[in-house]
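Sequence, please.
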């Protein structure tokens, strides 16, 4: 299977005049085709919250081959989850999947037997 083409879309960028050149704000955006670990690609979508901070909308992960498929530990904002990442099908996670404590790294529904 050929590597997916990276896809950056939907970004809205503005630079506040008073804040200077380093203060660009991206309100919404997405990127596809990121290699997060060897054999696993991801697509991420984000949006700014009311404070302007970027928040995860969804992440889509997929193994490039059956050899790369398996259970992986995901971490976002200090919360860990186990998720099964398969070949040929995307595993989708969102910010809601990373709420609450993770004393023993509770599983995402995809990791259920």
């Amino acid at each position: 299977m050929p590597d997916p083409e990276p896809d950056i879309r939907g970004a809205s960028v503005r630079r506040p005049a008073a804040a200077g050149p380093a203060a660009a704000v991206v309100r919404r955006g997405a990127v596809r085709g990121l290699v997060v670990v060897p054999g696993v690609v991801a697509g991420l979508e984000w949006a700014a919250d009311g404070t302007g901070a970027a928040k995860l909308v969804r992440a889509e992960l997929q193994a490039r081959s059956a050899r790369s498929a398996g259970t992986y530990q995901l971490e976002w904002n200090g919360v860990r989850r186990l998720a099964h990442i398969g070949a040929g099908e995307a595993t989708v996670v969102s910010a809601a999947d990373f709420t609450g404590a993770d004393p023993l790294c509770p599983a995402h529904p995809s990791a259920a037997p």
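DSSP finds no helices and eight strands in the chain.
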